[in-house]
Structures are given as structure tokens and as C-alpha cells.
Amino acid sequence: MGDTHWVYLEFATEKRFAPAALLVTWGRNGHKYSLKAAIMDQSDL
């Protein structure tokens, strides 16, 4: 679970922190969503 936290945090600091907020909320319900969102953010780059 901790891994997902730094994963989205890294991507957020890389570009924008806006997605991070969403990831945090999603992470509480399901970590799978946060991971998917993080990967999507990278693709956008």
C-alpha cells in the first residue's frame, strides 16, 4: 500500500499536483485506481 503513495506522489511532483489529490481520494477506496491514474498521467507526458 505504501508503494502506491510514493508512486502517485512522484508523478504529481513531476508535472502537476492536481491529479495527486484525486489519487489520494481514490486510493482510500481502491489502490488499483490510483495506480492506473498514475500511469495515465505519465502517458500524457
Compact overview of the structure:
The chain is an all-alpha fold. It has helices spanning 2-14, 18-29, 31-44.
Describe this structure in words.
With 45 residues, this protein is mainly alpha-helical. It has one domain (2-44). Helices cover 87% and strands 0% of the residues. The protein contains 3 helices and no strands. α1 runs antiparallel to α2 (18-29), α1 runs parallel beside α3 and α2 packs antiparallel against α3.
Reconstruct the topology from this structure.
Blueprint: H1 2-14, H2 18-29, H3 31-44
Helix pairs in contact: 1-2, 1-3, 2-3
Number of distinct beta strands? 0
Major sheet size, sense and barrel closure: none
**How large, in whole angstroms, is the Cα Rg?**
9 Å
Distance between the termini: 25 Å
The gross shape turns out to be globular
Mean pLDDT: 53
What percentage of the residues does DSSP assign to strands (E)? Answer: under 5%
- Please work out how many helical segments DSSP would assign: 3
The tally of structural domains comes to 1
Unreliable sequence segments: none
Class from secondary-structure proportions: mainly alpha
Helical proportion? over 70%
Task: Provide the succession of SSEs.
Answer: HHH
Q: What features would you highlight for this structure?
A:
mainly alpha, 45 residues
